[in-house]
Design brief:
By secondary structure, the protein is of the alpha/beta class. Helices cover about 40% and strands about 20% of the residues. The chain has helices at about 20-35, 60-70, 90-100, 100-105, 125-140, 190-200, 220-235, 250-255, 265-280, 300-310, 325-335, 335-340, 345-350, 360-370, 375-385, and strands at about 5-10, 40-45, 50-55, 75-85, 110-115, 145, 150-155, 160-165, 170-175, 180-185, 205-215, 240-245, 285-290, 315, 385-390. The strands form 2 sheets. Strands 1, 2, 3, 4, 5, 6, 7, 8 and 9 form a 9-stranded mixed β-sheet that branches. Helix 10 links the parallel strand 13 (about 285-290) and strand 14. It is elongated and about 85 Å long. The protein starts with a strand and ends with a strand. It binds adenosine-5'-triphosphate and magnesium ion. Magnesium ion (MG) binds near residues 346 and 348.
């Protein structure tokens, strides 16, 4: 057996909770397989409640695979490990070189050994002692600290070989995408909605994206910005079907026929109606928005009630109780922030009223809508939808 670097995901590192484990693992394996596409050929197998991800040849990019795996939901931690022959000589010969960089930069370390193959001649404490001694010889500046070591050296004796690795790498947590069904993410070019999509995908929900565009008020570039945002979200959520809805006529008609102070709320109600229809066509069980209480005039409780009234599916608002600063921390971490702050007009900003109502009354809103031919406007928007796949 040749010495090879691989990725290990152990059972304790899977976020299994209350779900059928078999289904959970099957979906996770499928997601991993898809996400590794383009990083080279890897073989995936499950044994001893561990997932083994092994490069099939030298062209497989393990660095890139690590990057991608760290964004797959359903994995709370994973390890990059060296697989060697199940013999003490091989383990002793490789451990120091494999972990050289980490050990040279530390003062203290500890060896931890696990032996799931009980036929191995040494016990776990014996393995620890032998490897520890070898590392102390190889790196004389190191000391052993069993309580608070700076570096951990793990040696695992398993069915197919011995595995050497350092401390685990953090995974993305959450549930595998697809275990929670599908929902439609209303995505603008702003900071909030991509974060909202990320958060629901983390709970296992697959995303279909709905974007409202108002050309010529909004540009081609504004739409490309949304595509760039979705590409980042897709790094976590898997590939995303995007539906772009032409929204210009609806906005123009609202402006022509309705009181200015209600523009935003009426616009948002049309978004909810159309998104609900798109969602049903695409087998989505809910809508997702980036709304957060009090952030803008259209996100007061009375305004949210008016918006929600127009939706015919549950509206999930994962950011509802978060501060802008908290949302920005996540958007930076997932790589959407720098894209979100690019200055392209959104359909909402184009038609912002000077004095929006923060406490719209339903009767007033419904009355204002009488001036519009709602069914015709919605039918026209639905027939103009453009489709593309992102990620
Ligand atoms: P964001 O940062 O996500 O744009 P926001 O704080 O700017 O949110 P609004 O612009 O009022 O708030 O939008 C609230 C929510 O409505 C957004 O989070 C998004 O889910 C949805 N939304 C707004 N504009 C659009 C659009 N052009 N297309 C699709 N959904 C939109
Ligand atoms: Mg916005």
């Amino acid at each position: 057996m040749e010495t090879q670097e691989i990725l290990l995901i152990k059972n304790g590192e899977l976020a299994l909770k209350g779900l059928n484990r078999g289904t959970f693992e099957d979906i996770l394996m499928k997601n991993i397989r898809r996400r590794l596409r383009g990083a080279g050929e890897f073989s995936l197998r499950k044994a001893q409640s561990t997932l083994y991800i092994e490069p099939k040849d030298d062209a497989a990019d393990l660095e890139e695979a690590c990057e991608r795996i760290s964004r797959v939901f359903g994995i709370s931690a994973f390890s990059r490990a060296l697989r060697v022959e199940k013999e003490m000589a091989a383990i002793l010969a490789s451990a120091g070189d494999y972990l050289r960089e980490q050990l040279e930069g530390a003062h203290t370390f500890k060896v931890d050994a696990r032996r799931s193959d009980k036929a191995f001649p040494l016990t776990s404490p014996q393995i620890c002692a032998a490897v520890g001694e070898r590392l102390l010889n190889q790196f004389p500046h190191l000391r052993v600290d069993v309580h608070r070591p700076e570096r951990l050296v793990m040696v695992e004796i398993r069915d197919f070989g011995a595995y050497i690795h350092a401390a685990q790498l953090p995974g993305a947590g959450g549930m595998p995408v697809g275990t929670g069904g599908r929902a439609a993410l209303l995505i603008s070019g702003g900071i909030d909605s991509p974060v909202a999509g990320y958060m629901m995908a983390k709970r296992g929900i697959e995303l279909t994206a709905v974007h409202f565009a108002s050309p010529p008020y909004t540009s081609e570039r504004a739409e490309e910005k949304v595509v760039s945002l979705l590409r980042e979200v897709a790094g976590y959520a898997g590939s995303i079907e995007m539906r772009t809805v032409p929204f210009t006529h609806i906005q123009e008609d609202i402006r022509r026929h309705c009181p200015e102070e209600l523009f935003t709320i009426l616009m948002r109600r049309y978004m909810m109606r159309i998104a609900s229809q798109v969602a049903r066509q695409e087998n989505c069980a809910a809508l997702i928005t980036g709304e957060s209480v009090g952030q803008v005039a259209s996100q007061t409780l009375p305004a949210l009630a008016c918006t929600e009234d127009a939706a015919s599916l549950p509206v999930l608002r994962p950011l509802i109780g978060m501060d802008k600063e908290e949302i920005i921390v996540i958007s930076r971490r997932i790589g959407t922030f720098d894209i979100s702050i690019q200055p392209y007009e959104d359909c909402c900003t184009v038609f912002t009223p000077r004095h929006p109502r923060t406490r719209p009354r339903m009767e007033q809103v419904v009355e204002a809508e009488q001036a519009l031919d709602g069914d015709a406007l919605i039918a026209e928007a639905m027939s103009g939808i453009r489709r593309r796949t992102v990620g």
